[in-house]
Amino acid sequence: MSRSIRVAGLLVLAAGFGGCATTHEPPNLDPHKQQIRRYVDSGEYQRDIAVVTGRAQAWIARRAAQRKPGERLAVVLDLDETLFLNWPHLRRNDLGYVESVWLAWVESAQAPAIEPVRELYRSARRLGVATLLVTGRPETQRAATERNLRAIDCTDYAALVCRPAGQQGSSAGFKTAARQRLERDGWTLIANIGDQESDLVGGHAERTFKLPAPFYLTE
Predict the structure, then answer these.
(1) Which residue ranges form the domains of the chain, and what is each CATH number?
(2) Which of 29, 74, 137, 197 meets the CB 3.0–4.6 Å disulfide criterion with 187?
(3) Contact 191, 205 (CB under 8 A)
(4) How far apart are CA 42 and CA 25, in angstroms?
């Protein structure tokens, strides 16, 4: 066998082994966590939220000015990562989820407000538009959630809808059904604001406004 043929054979063999070594490894998680921390610490996260809430406030003001006689206008708000900021808990736990640790955080009622959303909440109330809070938190966490709402001075809401304890099915399905019930109660839902697509899909709101959601996914 000539040297050139032997070299060619070795190259083919090496290419074959290289192909075997190809993997489908996803990107490493740690750099992604670092990117999320920079996004929050730089202030960009809050700025992105402010852009969305600015659009929502402009719409709410226009719609309130067009109110028809007898209309009961309302805005639907999610809580976690919409009105409540759980970043202190998320950062302390390296963006991980441990059920007992999360439950202790909820019971502590220490989540600060996301300021642009709290201002939207207050702006809606000044315009005579009700706020309806629809959360995936279970009914067993209602008391702690109410304490947290008092702590951030958001107590004049018209309804707090929690998920019935033990209810099966998707978050999207629960929240869609909740908005349907609120409409049957006579509310005109002019805006629906949340950080997850599952907060917003399913209709039953004139406009939807999606906040950034870099931390987790709820379906």
Answers:
(1) 46-210 (3.40.50.1000)
(2) 74
(3) yes
(4) 30
Residue type, 156: D
Strands of 130-138's sheet, edge to edge? 159-163, 130-138, 73-77, 188-194, 208-210
DSSP 8-state code for residue 64: H
- Total residues found in the chain within this entry: 219
The mean-pLDDT minimum among 2-16, 85-99, 128-142, 199-213 falls in 2-16
DSSP H or E run through 104 = helix 99-108
Instruction: Answer for the pair 158, 183: CB distance below 8 angstroms, yes or no.
Output: no
Q: The pTM is what?
A: 0.87
CA distance 179 to 187: 9
Closest CA to 211 of 32, 37, 33, 55: 55
Query: What is the C-alpha to C-alpha distance for residues 129 and 47, in angstroms, rounded to an integer?
Result: 25
Instruction: Kindly state the tokens that stand for 177.
Output: 């059904």
Give yes or no for a contact between 109 and 148, defined as CB atoms under 8 angstroms apart.
Answer: yes
In 3D, which of 132, 219, 125 has the Cα closest to residue 170?
219
Tell me the per-residue pLDDT of 123-164, one tens digit each, with 9 for 90 and over: 999 999 999 999 999 999 999 999 999 999 999 999 999 999
